[in-house]
Design brief:
14% helix, 41% strand, three-stranded antiparallel beta sheet, ten-stranded antiparallel beta sheet, mainly beta, outer membrane lipoprotein receptor (LolB), chain A
Length: 239
């Protein structure tokens, strides 16, 4: 019997096709209440994000005013000028979030870290299920208006920087990712329900273009007000 992770990877375009590419770029529009709460309402409102597909790294350009860009890896985050000169950098950035809650403001470097690890995770999913050290286990189905969604509990190894060690993925009958639950460890373990829609195909891979993130309740439900984060993607390119 085909494992669920194999079924969903195939549904999104297949691992062989995915492994032909090294990086992915997309135009990005973001909104929601999170960014002003963290002190950066406009820095990433409209930008281009690029992520690695074989190594964990990400960059947003522009990053706020001027011709700046961010550079994220799990053990270092930096802000560079348009000429590539490092303006600011921080080693072991995850440690800088110790003691944070949802209301704690972020520095620009902390914003670059969060946005980098978040978008790297989102844009590599569900192919991260085949990443070395990533473990998954099928859970009981989840009732949805379109029929039961199958679910995977995913456990990430320590070497991957992502929202939380354990996350839950929900898939429709066609194997497409429809929801993604996690706790944002660097923001006081804030529980999120991430709703995924608007699939488009790019270079033979299926990508959602509309993402909406809400506060998740203990029973798995969520309210659509407030809208914590909105993410709209277009012009997806793989190379």
């Amino acid at each position: 019997m085909t494992q669920l992770k194999d079924f969903v990877i195939k549904a999104h375009g297949g691992l062989d096709r995915w492994r032909q590419f090294n990086q992915l770029s997309a135009d990005l529009i973001q909104g929601g209440v999170l960014w002003p709460v963290k002190g950066h309402p406009d820095t990433l409102a409209r930008t281009t994000v690029t992520v690695g597909l074989k190594e964990e790294w990400a960059s947003h350009a522009p990053f706020g005013a001027g011709n700046r860009r961010s550079r994220f890896t799990p053990d270092r985050v930096a802000i560079e000028g348009g000429d590539g000169i490092v303006l600011e950098e921080l080693s072991q950035p995850r440690a800088s979030f110790a003691g944070h809650s949802l209301q704690t403001p972020w520095s620009e470097l902390q914003l670059a870290y969060f946005a980098g690890c978040a978008m790297w995770t989102y844009l590599n999913m569900p192919f991260l299920l085949a990443w070395p050290g990533v473990e998954s286990e099928e859970l009981e189905p989840w009732p949805a208006d379109s029929g039961d969604w199958r679910r995977l509990a995913v456990r990430f190894p320590a070497g991957i920087a992502t929202h939380s060690t354990v996350q839950t993925l929900y898939f429709d009958g066609d194997g497409l990712l429809k929801r993604h639950d996690y706790d944002v460890e660097i923001s006081g373990n804030t529980p999120g329900a991430h709703i995924i829609e608007g699939y488009r195909e790019a270079s033979g891979i299926k990508f959602p273009t509309k993402r909406r993130i809400y506060a998740r309740q203990p029973d798995g439900s969520f309210n659509t007000d407030p809208l914590v984060v909105s993410i709209d993607l277009s012009n997806i390119r793989l190379s």
